[in-house]
Amino acid sequence: MRTILAVLTALLLALAPTAALAVGPARDAPMALPDDLKASEVSFRGSGGLQLHGSVISPVRARSGRAGVVLVHGAGTGTKRDKLLAEAVAFARQGMSVLVYDKRSEGYSLFHRSYSQLADDALGAVGTLRRQAGVDPSKVGIWGLSEGGWVAPLAASRSADISFVIVVGANALHPLRQQTWAVAAGLRKAGVRGSFVDRAEPTLYRVIADGGMFPESYYEPEPVIASVRQPVLGLWGVHDLLTPPRETPPIFARALERGGNRHYTFRFFADADHAAHRTPDGGVTRLPELAPGYADLVGDWVGQATSGRAPVAQVTGPAPVQADDSVAVPPVAWWESAGVHAAALVLFLVAFAGYPVVALVRRVRRRAGVPPVKAARWVSAGGLVTVLGGFSYLFYAIMTGGKLAAPGPLVAGRPLVWVALQAIAVVTLVAAAMTALRLRRVAGRGERTRLGILLAGAAVFLPWALYWGLLQP
Q1: C-alpha span between 82 and 95 (Å, rounded)
Q2: Taking every annotated instance into account, which residue ranges of this chain make up the domain Serine aminopeptidase S33 (predicted)?
Q3: Number of CB atoms found within 10 A of residue 82's CB
């Protein structure tokens, strides 16, 4: 089952990069830094003994007894440390030592992902930073962006060595629910409405998750957040298109308070995106600069948190922009599972592609055949185009990502490609009905069998098209 879906995914733009095998990220050359900062290269053991490499960035004139923070990446395989260089530089200029490391590739792929494993990687980095000269080991915390917003609280819940937690663009929802919302938010921002965004997009993610290609899809973050005892600083851009910025903070606060932790500070930044970087167009474009006041807030708050003066239940900043609520994405029932869809795909290929293949074989062998039913040709061609074109366009839409969605030309809020596929689906079903009416008048057992297989594919095609929203506005 997994093999079939993996092959389909590769053919339709490849959903995600595969992991490197059995090695950690390679050691990079030292990062180029401003003159007022310095870097030292470090290596440490992560989960399973995997060797990871990173850089500790500190002020050139660093004071002894300073605080430190470990930066945890967002989603992606083997993400390099320079992806977070802007944050590392900004926080080091607040007087801290900042450890940023290359994310693992081993064990992180299309089919496998473990937030527990990533949390253990982060704990290895925390232990390394606590041993750095001039760093006060009692003042080392952890910072997590996006996916790191699931990882950082998990690491903090496991170790009293972490003195504070900072999350940026973090999510308190199931990862699958967050992802379907993010892609839908990007599509809606591009003007898309109707069944493509309301039905087809979340359906595809549910099937992908059932096929094992969305690991940690139903990870439950609330109990972990409730077990965090360290002070928490939560930061969100007002124009976050990847995490529901209005829904997540109240869930975070509720979980923390349920665990008896009221030492949290939440801040929303105007004109900022998912990573709290500046955005000029409502979150579509990310600029290199951090949101004004972001770094200063981190520096001041870390100073308070590490001296026992963390603010209590403080929420500030403008209200976030979130046009639509996220919706629950339940696991599939048996009849809508990845296995059933794979079987349906095989049937479609046999039924729709088999019809012209048999005709071609007959022609090559110069065998006289029964005059073809013209409507059957429409069933064959329309079914193939709808199935293969529908999956191709859906995979393209999710591959472009949430805020980068590019659905193409729209007609009344519907992607032109999707409208065309819907029209072809209708033509296919009408042609199937016409073919069924002609079936009894067709001479020859072989031809009736051929048409029977074609119509069997069309019979399954009807509920399939309804399920995917191809027969809905």
Answers
A1: 20
A2: 66-177
A3: 14
CATH number of 18-194+215-316: 3.40.50.1820
Q: Decide: 276 and 269 in contact? Cβ < 8 Å.
A: yes
- Angle, nearest 10°, between helix axes 2-11 and 338-348? 60
Kindly state the average pLDDT of the residues 328-354.
94
Rounded to an integer, what distance in angstroms lies between the CA atom of residue 144 and that of residue 157? Answer: 14
C-alpha 392/C-alpha 92 separation (Å) is: 45
- The predicted structure's pLDDT at residue 439: 75
- In order of 88, 132, 195, 295, the CA distances from 101 in angstroms are 11, 15, 42, 20
Distance CA 157, CA 145 (A): 17
CB 213 within 8 A of CB 6: yes
Distance, in Å, from the CA atom of 285 to the CA atom of 276, rounded to the nearest integer, reads 12
d(CA 397, CA 359): 35
Report the C-alpha gap between 241 and 274 in whole angstroms: 6
Q: Domains of the chain: which residue ranges?
A: 18-194+215-316, 334-467
What tokens were used for 304?
């308070």
- Band (pLDDT 50/70/90 cuts) for residue 4 is very low
A 10 A CB-CB count for 164 gives 23
DSSP for 327-370 reads ---PPPPGGGSHHHHHHHHHHHIIIIIHHHHHHHHHHHHT---P
pLDDT of residue 329 exceeding 90: yes
Helix (H, G, I), strand (E, B) or coil at 21: coil
C-alpha 418, offset from chain centre: 23
In whole angstroms, give the CA distance from residue 73 to residue 79: 7
Q: Give 339's contacts (C-beta < 8 A, 6+ positions apart).
A: 1
